[in-house]
From TrEMBL:
Pfam families recorded: YdjM (PF04307)
Transmembrane helix listed as a keyword: yes
Entry GO MF terms: hydrolase activity
InterPro entries, alphabetized: YdjM-like
UniProt KW keywords: Hydrolase, Membrane, Transmembrane, Transmembrane helix
Lineage: Bacteria, Bacillati, Bacillota, Bacilli, Bacillales
PANTHER family for this protein: INNER MEMBRANE PROTEIN YBCI-RELATED
Name of this chain's protein: Metal-dependent hydrolase
Stretches of the chain forming a coiled coil according to its record: none
Domain of life from the UniProt record: Bacteria
TM ranges: 7-23, 60-78, 90-108, 120-145
């Protein structure tokens, strides 16, 4: 399934949450960002999306994402090294944009880059003592090396992702972040279940591939 399809579904899930929970502009953008990232993150595991029939426009878009992400990250690192402070919003935006750029790439270099981003998150989570960020770091550093539609496309990964969302919810005191994370992530697996290849929801307990033909 294409990344753009997953992204669209993720945005719809986030928008639904924005309507469901008490509305503020900040919360609405948070729900949409969390949900969109959740809907895409399962495919950090490999060259699934866009790889074969990548359109010129989306290829371009991803290159642009990647470079904007690199520039923002460089800015954050520069600020940290000169002033010793980290602009948290800018850091989060740069990581999200970087990952959006990477999600369509493939190959060992890409995996190493994504893992490096994951290690950065791990370090960042460790220095701040934020467990959810540590969890996200583990996820981002590890998932690129998995077989495609393997461990990252399971109920276990969904629960792990939900735990990350729970930690973020506790920290931000915004109701519904965990639910949005789980729904966004699950939307990815459900969408993949509708493709001929299906999803091994219970892997490695069961290697059965679940698929639904519409
Ligand atoms: Zn997938």
């Amino acid at each position: 399934m294409k990344g753009s399809t997953h992204l669209t579904i993720g945005i719809v899930v986030g928008a639904a949450a924005a309507v469901y929970y008490p509305f503020t502009l900040k919360n609405a953008s948070l729900y949409i960002a969390v949900s969109a990232l959740s809907a895409l993150s399962a495919d950090l595991d490999g060259p699934s999306i866009l790889s074969s029939k990548i359109g010129k426009v989306s290829k371009w878009l991803h290159e642009i994402f990647l470079w904007i992400g690199v520039c923002l990250a460089a800015g954050v690192i520069y600020q940290y090294s000169t002033h010793g402070l980290v602009n948290q919003e800018l850091s989060i935006v740069s990581v999200v944009i970087l990952l959006l750029g990477f999600v369509a790439k493939e190959g060992v270099t890409r995996n190493i880059m994504v893992s490096l981003v994951g290690c950065g998150l791990l370090y960042w989570g460790w220095t701040l003592g934020w467990n959810w960020l540590l969890g996200l770091g583990v996820f981002v550093a590890w998932v690129p090396w998995l077989n495609h539609r393997g461990m990252s496309h399971t109920i276990w990964a969904t629960l792990f992702w939900g735990a990350i969302g729970w930690g973020l919810e506790q920290q931000l005191h915004v109701e519904g972040i965990m639910a949005v994370s789980i729904c966004g992530y699950a939307s990815h697996l459900i969408a993949d279940t509708l493709t001929p290849r299906g999803v091994k929801w219970l892997y490695p307990l069961s290697k059965r591939s679940f698929k639904i033909r519409l």
